[in-house]
Design goal:
The complex is a heterodimer of chains A (233) and B (102).
Chain A lengths: L11 H31 L4 H11 L2 H10 L6 H12 L1 H7 L2 H4 L4 H8 L4 H12 L7 H23 L14 H13 L6 H17 L4 H16 L4
Helix pairs in contact in A: 1-3, 1-8, 1-9, 2-9, 3-4, 8-9, 8-10, 11-12
Chain B lengths: L4 H28 L4 H25 L2 H17 L2 H18 L2
Helix pairs in contact in B: 3-4
Classes of the chains: A mainly alpha (233), B mainly alpha (102).
Chain lengths: 233, 102
């Protein structure tokens, strides 16, 4: 769907709508933030280091991976390069937002991008594809997830030992369930079948052989390329 | 453990910087490269492909409880278009099925 640039807005009502839509997901994120906090403490991070990572990097998957590398003396360049590799999927995600973010001011657009995480991006794209024109929706999703992630990191690092495993309550499945529901809404018809099959096959293959999150980059590219190759046929 | 605060500050700052760059780069590039219809088709195919790539490997490592719960979520999402309902039903289903499975 291609919105007229003049219809795109960036205001508080969009932030509020994004924030409210994200709250149930933020609960799932918080349960993982607690686990992250507990593991960060076990890995020897100070409270400042843990909160610094959650507040400035704000990318769960890469932060979990970094805990494995957090041994003294710190392998600074390995930490930075691994983080880059795990987060490269953001490049693909950001590019898909161009129809709505291309016409915003740099501060609105690139300020919002700091808050783009998988869950908020998927919710935002679903909202905008359904005809929404409030670009600030992304910022709202990001703020809800940011508060949940940073707050639960701190709680996990200070009081986390008292808490159990989120898998016990099925909370680990919340993300899969949400992503599946969003995927169902993205189905545009039979032309999606081949790109999606290609994406799934490549993701499974790459996940088997490569560490980190390369499978998301590879699967995303495979699906996009398959769609582009079939374009116009 | 606070023996080398400079190294940890450097690591955190570097990780934050490269992560922000990955977030900004996609929009930055997409707004500057002139898009032909084939590139548009490429970008249009990415969201579903990224979601599948996030979901599938984890599901493949799961078992019957996760697969059945995934079917519950997917079916409910297709039928009701209600995100929250699909999410809660999936979590409840996986919890119940794991209890059954021991």
């Amino acid at each position: 769907m291609r919105p007229a640039p003049s219809r795109i807005t960036f205001g508080w009502d969009g932030v509020r709508a994004g924030f409210a839509r994200t709250l149930p997901v933020a609960l799932g994120v918080a349960s993982y933030g607690l686990v992250y906090g507990v593991l960060a403490r076990q890995a020897g991070l100070s409270l400042g280091e843990g909160l610094g990572l959650s507040g400035l990097v704000f990318a769960g998957a890469s932060q979990f991976v970094a805990l494995d590398l957090w041994v003294h003396p710190l392998p600074v360049s390995a930490l930075i390069l691994t983080t880059l590799a795990v987060n490269l999927r953001h490049v693909l995600m950001g590019a898909t937002l161009r129809p709505w973010f291309g016409g915003l001011t740099p501060l609105q657009a690139y300020g919002s991008m700091f808050f783009m995480v998988d869950e908020g991006w998927a919710l935002t794209l679903t909202e905008l594809n359904a005809g929404g024109c409030r670009a600030s929706f992304l910022l709202g999703t990001g703020l809800a997830l940011y508060l949940a992630w940073v707050g639960s990191t701190g709680l996990g690092m200070t009081a986390g030992a008292l808490l159990g495993d989120p898998a016990r309550l099925g909370m680990d499945f919340a993300f899969t369930a949400m992503f599946l529901a969003l995927l169902a809404g993205m189905w545009r018809g039979k032309r999606d079948l081949l790109p999606w099959l290609a994406a799934g096959a490549v993701a499974l293959l790459v996940e088997h052989f490569a560490p980190g999150k390369w499978h998301i980059v590879a699967g995303g590219l495979a699906g996009g390329l398959t769609g582009a190759l079939r374009h116009g046929r | 453990m606070a023996a080398e605060p400079q190294a940890s500050i450097l690591a955190i700052a570097g990780m934050a910087l490269v992560t922000y760059l990955t977030r900004a780069a996609g929009l930055f590039i997409a707004t500057r490269v002139r898009l032909i219809p084939r590139t548009e088709a490429f970008l249009a195919g990415i969201p579903g492909a990224v979601l599948i790539s996030i979901i599938l490997p984890g599901l493949a490592r799961g078992g019957p409880a996760e697969w059945a719960a995934a079917a519950v979520s997917l079916g409910l999402a297709l039928k009701t278009r209600n995100l929250l309902a699909a999410m809660l039903a999936g979590v409840a289903a996986v919890w119940a099925l794991r209890q059954l499975g021991g």
